[in-house]
Structures are given as structure tokens and as C-alpha cells.
User: Fold non-specific serine/threonine protein kinase from Gymnopilus junonius.
Amino acid sequence: MLNLLRRFKQIPTASATTAYLRSSSSIASVAPRLFSTTGFTTVPDSTKLEEENWTRYTPPSFYPVSIGDVLHSKYQVLYKAGYGTTATIWICRDLQRNECVCMKSMVSNYPSVEHEIKVYDVLSTASKTSRSPGKRFVRHALDHFELRHGECDYHFLIHEPLGASLQFFLDEIKVGLPIEYVKDLASQMLHALAYIHSAGVIHTDLQANSILLHVQDEIVLKDAEEAEIEHPSARKSIGQKRDHGQGQSQPQPQSVVFQTTEHPSPLGRWIGGKSGPVLCDFGEARIGKQSYTELIQPAADRAPEVFLHIPWGSAVDIWSFGCTIWNLLLGENLFPRTWAYTADKDQLARMVALLGPPPSSFLDVGPRALEFFNQDGSPKGEVPSETLESLLASSLERTKKTMTAEESAAFLAFLRRALTWTPEGRVSAEELLWDPWIASRAERW
Assistant:
């Protein structure tokens, strides 16, 4: 673990970012590789595999991507890199350029898919004219295409392949990341937010899971490809019964669910001086500068106005940013959740303890205010006795991190500028970049 921390200390910049606009030069077409159709582990029908576990899963909702396939006449599928509720993730080879890319195969007929496509279109347009340093810290789409299968249409996005999320390292280390590294991350993510907000995009889902790191050495992608050739991924066929007219039914393969590939390369090939952060996951993003009222954000990082059903805008990202920085530094949520039915009430009561009471004018315009607060403005949930100062002191002791009294005060002042009850009280990403706690980093990028 000490070696892991040393590696983090060696990640000062994101200078080796891959460009989001492809050059027409250096084209080196290659032939597709042959992948084995035998020698893999067959997962039994009784076992649900990966995306099958989602409650909304049906075989037709996911395009039947198979390892070895060439899609859109240029992207050969090499192995599966992940999955989610609305997509499967694959590492492919762009045969026209002989380079690895990441392909997101998106489910059919789901509202967020078309929405995400539009967000990437907006970011693509913005990147052509913007001079913002935040561009390098935001994931852009390299390509987008659509395929039809059966009665459904499916969208695909092509991205630069990235490595692990910051949440992966938080889970490994348990005590948060080094302070100086978190300062760099804070500056880089504020640049990213300033860029997307200027383009009219609200992320709504900023958290450690949505910040991925660049790959230090792309040999790791080749290693996984060779591992797939030598040891084909486990998989299962999803069939449907068909009656052949004699009272007998025979399962006919409809699609194949593959198991995600475990990367064989050592961590040192993933993390290093080139491993700058990238803000990803725009599936829940909103476009435009108007306000919204939908429920957004992971519950632990949810802004007060969202709880109270007060119209919200880009300031929700600043609140999430503040929660994320605490998590990155100290390895724990500032507003941890329980499964109790009073979780929302208790979370707002904890906000009162840590941040002070909300303005009465703020509660007056909140349609749900009386669910969480009494008529006199006191919270209905259980208010803890700790303060933000006492919580920081105990968290630093737990994680064995050291801050002087002046450094602690500067950090909490920085945090309080992001975590205000009212969205209009939160400073913008551009303003927060010049806060004394990280101002020395603002021009580095």
C-alpha cells in the first residue's frame, strides 16, 4: 500500500491527454484478428451474469455484441471492459487506425440514451472553439454510430480508453488520497466544471466513480487482448424457446452475455505520471442554462435544493464537488446514508449541524420543506453533536493525515464556499479555482 501512495505522489499533471479531435494522419489499417469460439467456460442458464442482474434487463434491450465482431466496418471487439444499467463497455481496435478505443454499447429505447448523445454533441461543438484548460479533463466522444438489430435501434459511442476510477483507489486505500494530490484533483475538476458549465452542460452526477484516470502505459490494453486470445472469457447464451410444430421446443441462441475481463497487468502499468483525471459519465447530464426540478445526484451528494424540490441549475455540481473532495481526502462520505426511512431527514439535520441552519427564505420556497423542517425552521431529523471542525479533526486522526490549524481553516473555508444551503450562495467553478486553498494550482494546467 505504501507503494501505491508513492505512485499517487508522482501524478502531478494530466499533460499526456489524448486529443479529442482525431487527426486524419497516421492511418495504419490492420486486418481483424481471429478469436477462438471454443475453450471458454460456459455459465449455466441458472446463473445470472453481469447485466442480467439488472431488474429491467431483457435480451433485446442490449445489442448482441460478441468478441471478434467488427462493428460499423471498423471497430473489432477485443474484450468486455464493464457493464451498467444502460450499457455494456468494450475495448475495441479501430482497424483503420490500428489503435485501441473504448466502445459504449447503449441499450435500446431508454430515455437517457438519446439525451447522452445530445450532451456529447454539445461538448463536441464546444471543444472546437473553447480555449478552456478544462477540455483536457473532460471525456469527449470520438465517434458515434447507430445499428439496427431485429426490431430495435442501438446507439454506440467511441471514447478514448481509460483506466480505473478514483473510487477504485478509495476502496483500496480506505483512508483517502494524499492531500497535495487532492489539491491537484480539486483544481483539475474545477477546470472541468468551468468548461462544461460554459458549454451549458450540468453534470449532475459528479463523484469519485465518475472520475477516471488516463492509462499510464497502453501495453495494458494489449495484455488484456492477448489474455482474451489465450483464455477466452466465460459466457452464456441467452435463448428463447421455439415450438417446431410437434409439441417440442428447442432453445435458440438469441444473444451472448460475456464476463468482464480481469486486467492482467500490474498496477504500475496503469498508474503513473500520465494518469491525469478525466470527468466521465454524462448519462444523467442536463443541457441548457434553465432550471430543473427532477431528482438527481447520488443521495449522499444531493444538494439541498434537490431535496426540497426547489428549481436547480449548475450549482448542484458545485455541491457535489464539495462532497467529492471531502471523500477523496478522507475516504468517507461527508453525509453518509443509512437505509432507515428517515435517511433524508437525518441527512438534512446533519447539514444543519455541519453548516448551520438554512435561511428561512430558502425554506419558504421549498415545496418539501415541511417534510424535513418544523415551522420554526428546526430540522425534524436527529441532529448530531459534531461540527465541521470536529469532524475534520477526528477524520484526520483516523486517516493519520496532518494539517496545521491554518491549513485546516483554509480547507474548511474552501469547502464552505462550495457547500452553502442556497445555490446562489455557492461560488462558481471559476471563482473557486482562485480560492487560497488551491490557488497555486489554478494556472498549472
